[in-house]
TrEMBL record:
Residues 24-109 form the Rhodanese domain. One of its GO terms (molecular function) is transferase activity. It comes from the Bacteria. This is Sulfurtransferase. It comes from Undibacter mobilis.
Length: 274
């Protein structure tokens, strides 16, 4: 929770992403400003600032809210004050998008988002019975690109037709943009397309996913474990692909948290007892 703080610093907000405490991030830059920028904060959704009365009620009261504008001035402050007055756990991003960019934190590529997801929430389609890459990709999309994204799973021959008929984005299948490229998995392709490939923890996670998904366990020592757990979860889930996503997301949340906050921690049975 954001507790009583009226503002939150960019690094703290970044540290909350993909954790159980991750807030809803609402971008309230003026439309002309928002449409002119090249990137936006991962996981954020844009809302018209002067029409806040129309959309405040759509926010989840059970989750904190972070509001961000261009520089953290009147737009975000007015809306945060209104949210707090209505009982939301809300804070503004200190310094706004400018402070986020100055801190060198990741931004989602705007042109790719507009091209692939002209409407949000977005709909994505892939093959049934996901195991590794087809769970890692939805995790990345939900946590960083479109928090309200929906996913459907069909038999492999029908993915292309499903994408065309339902205006969905196909992924992790031959012949589409978001799939394996050279030695990279679809997860790595997503990182490239949306401008996240240089974030160190996501780049390391991509190597683990690639190792597990392509039987290249030599690429990362964690790949063998991810492979085993993923196949075990798939066996338990049987035909419940959406239930498998829920279970799998916990695995990727945990891996990402380990990479960011605990990768240097050692664990061993103590050789001596004090």
């Amino acid at each position: 929770m954001l507790a009583s703080d009226f503002s939150i610093h960019p690094q703290k907000l970044w540290n909350l992403l993909a954790t159980p405490l991750a807030p809803q991030i609402v971008d309230v830059r003026r439309r002309d400003v928002y449409e002119s920028v090249s990137g936006f904060i991962p996981g954020s959704v844009w809302r018209e600032p002067t029409a806040y009365a129309d959309w405040i009620g759509t926010l989840d009261r059970m989750r904190p809210v972070v509001v961000t504008c261009k520089l953290g001035k009147e737009l975000s402050q007015v809306i945060v004050s209104e949210l707090r007055g209505q009982g939301y756990d809300a804070a503004m991003l200190a310094g706004g998008q400018g402070a986020w960019a100055d801190a060198g934190l990741p931004l989602i590529n705007r042109s790719s988002t507009d091209r692939l997801m002209p409407r949000r929430p977005s709909l994505w389609v892939t093959r049934r019975h996901p195991k590794i890459d087809r769970i890692a990709c939805p995790w990345l999309i939900r946590r960083f690109i479109d928090p309200a994204a929906r996913f459907v799973f069909v038999d492999p021959p029908y993915v292309a037709d499903a994408a065309a008929n339902f205006d969905a984005i196909p992924f992790d299948i031959d012949g589409v943009e978001i799939s394996h490229r050279n030695d990279r998995c679809s997860f790595g392709t997503l990182l490239d397309i949306f401008g996240l490939a240089n974030e160190p923890s996501l780049a390391r996670l991509a190597l683990i996913v690639r190792g597990a998904d392509t039987a290249r366990h030599d690429l990362a020592p964690e790949a063998s474990g991810l492979h085993a757990i993923s196949l075990g979860l798939s066996t338990l889930a049987r035909d419940d692909d959406h239930g498998l996503l829920d279970m799998g997301f916990t695995i990727y949340d945990s891996l990402f948290a380990w990479l960011r906050f605990a990768a240097d921690e050692k664990h061993n049975w103590p050789s001596k007892v004090a």
